[in-house]
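Subject: complex prediction, re-run

Hi both,

The earlier run crashed halfway through, so I resubmitted it with identical inputs.
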Amino acid sequence: MVSKDHEGKVYPPYQVRPDRTMGLQYAQALGLAALPARPPLTYLIFLRGETQGVDLFGDLDIPRHQALHGGQRYEWFAPVEWDDALEVRVRIDRVLEKNSKTGPLWFVDASFDYHHAQSGVLAVREVTRLIKRGAP
Amino acid sequence: MKTGEVLFQVRVPGSSRETIALFSQATQDPNPIHIDDAFALRCGFAQVIQQGPMTTAHFARLLAEYCGADQLRSLDVSFSAPVFPLEDLDLRATVEQVEDGVVLLALVAQKADGTVTAKGQAQVALHQR
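This time it finished cleanly. Structure:
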């Protein structure tokens, strides 16, 4: 189950490349007609790690029906272009338990650092905040 | 930009179920809560819900439009209430502080009935890197 023991866990790095097909779907979902010149600023998202072995929900024992997405933080350091190879380094930064009227809540912050694979330059940092609540 | 100035207040039309499903596809989000009413009900919601990251994405898109993508330094959004299909959202960015060439913006996303669905902050640089 989710616990403080998960704090500091680092996953093996994986690679992603911003993909034009998914980029167009992303743009269309936002009401844009055409593929933008560069990947949308928030195109890089933690969910893409699930197909690369970073299964936060599974590893932290957060069943989907008990999961809430608390929020996201992005920091941008360098541009990212379509098809750029990016190495993603993932770390569970913080696990916090709080009591609520409906039972315990767990707050998990995980950071995803997207580095240009060739140069090693950090381009984007995403912190996602997940919440595990009691069964509804 | 001056403290208190509203940089933008934009109504984002509600997303259809198809659009919400498309966003799931585009973000490789396997969570059935965005596409399956029965699952959403099991989670305590009356119907499927829109992804929080779609609100983040709209804020990022608008900030890029108003300030330039290369000027954006950070964006932090916290989700506070579910958004259901076809619910319009008003997205507002207000200047909170201008210091050392960086503008700090307060962000709010609100439904037509006044429910705040997300709050956040963004930092935008006034000058090129």
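The two ends of chain B are 19 Å apart (CA to CA).

- K.
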